[in-house]
Structures
1.
Amino acid sequence: DRDVTGVQTCALPISGYILANQAYIDRAVKAGEFVQQHMLRDGDLLRTCYSDGVGSGHRITNLQAPIYGCVDDFSNVIAGAIDLFQATGHAKWIKLALDLQTKQNDLFWDSSPTGGGYFSSRATDKSAIVRMKDDDDGAEPSSNSVSLINLLRLQHLFPDKYSSHIERLLLQLGDRLTKIPITLPLMTCALLSMRAGVRSFTAVGKNVGSSSLVQALRNKLLPTGSLVILVDMQHSGNVDSLKNIVPVITERVQEFEKLGLGPDEVVIFSRKQSGGGTDTVAKTVEELEQLFE
């Protein structure tokens, strides 16, 4: 089930990132690679796959007419891919998130003049008499709440690309948020974070994951919708891939190089989405602490 696997793929990299536990991150990477290998077909996400046995000799297979993913599957797998990107800094995870977000927008977004938000079913699903929208954070967060946070986090990398989707999603569910926000606690958290100004934190340098700056950042409770980006300069191939996918990374690397620091130095660039594109630079733990005062 992609919905459950997506939630699992969020929990493991988040735990691995915060606790600096590589075993958790490695397990999350295996889950993400399983999705890439077995659950994608022509750019679309499958909901299920099957094993034809047990043990080392089994094969992963699927139905002749496979079951394609619903909006919950997309939103949770995208969230997992973003969390994998935050934990590892690897370009392939942000590419997966971007590709699936584009597909989710194509399949589920309400593009009518007065619409907004994501339908639960596809337009091509003939079994759906009415296309409903998920607007309740119950035992699992609603697909629209998870999608809003995904869009906020991707917005750090692509300023203004998702602004219209974010605004229209909130307008579509604004009445429910205003009258009974307790039904959408996750979306309410995201909205409050937006008003306070969600931040991105881009760590650039060598061995960024083990630096004292990033370790200090791990200990901070970041607002919903924040994103940490690890740019490890000793892995030049991955950095080049990141630059090709995310132009903002090129800007951060250029800013880092202009600082003329030593080869082992690490710097964190922090930017508020509502900050007009201005970076705050932290070169020490003390300067990082000042960002949270």
2.
Amino acid sequence: WTKMESADKYILYKSVKGGYIDKELVTLSKSTLYYDDYDVNKIKAYEYKIASVSVIGDKSYEGNKSVGVTGVVGNYGIVVSSDNGIINWDMVASAGINHAIICVANYGESGGENGTKLKKDSRFDANITGATKAGLKVGIYLPTYAHTKDDAKKEGELVIDYLKGYKIDYPIYYSIQNKSKANKSKRDANTMLVKEFCSKISEYGYTTGVYSTAEFIDNYLDTRELKGYSILASKHSRVRKLNFPEKISKINRIIDKGFYSGNNYSSFDIYEWEYSKKGIVSGIGTNVKLIYN
């Protein structure tokens, strides 16, 4: 919520969306502008209201409750790579972001490794170390340049090698959204690449899946063949830029309209949704992709 200059503290109220009783949830200091509520049920949506409290002498005066904001149960995250530069992960965590999907490798201009066209992303080690140290949960993604089953298998092996010594909480995503593969005649071949990569990753006990645009997944992958794998789909809101967490009310409305209320942006089940590529988050000097699950 937005800082209220007259506030000496805040009281946060909570009700089940559509209910009529506001329950006092917590009293917060005047410097606190967001709150994580973990006492929630994922099949319900909640409404929160904030009231400023002024303290004069030994008496407290509570102002009117703000207009309710729909609370959405889930996790706010970001997708990052070396394109986002040096990241201050402590600031990212303080903003309320709780997980990051980190690019593990990129196209190697002077050649790749392990028989692939890929080399480790120049910020991968710093990003996964910094995010983990700041308390964020992490997953990774790999943009594919594979054409054959053997290519996809080698890309999977490369990821496993780069992950040595690191712990991850979220899936390892195979990012397949190349324009050259956006052809319905390549639907079966694309699906085969995803299955080969995910099969190799699964051998090592990791959760895995596919990362692409909702349009690509709908048209150029056979999702019936990808049951059991996680899907990170991108379909961006038309809102030009989203400051996180300052625009959390607008973000929650976007999520409530799309991902949370029946995955209205796609014809398949999504594990995680990328709803903006122009997010603004403290600690990151560039626009950043915003995700939710």
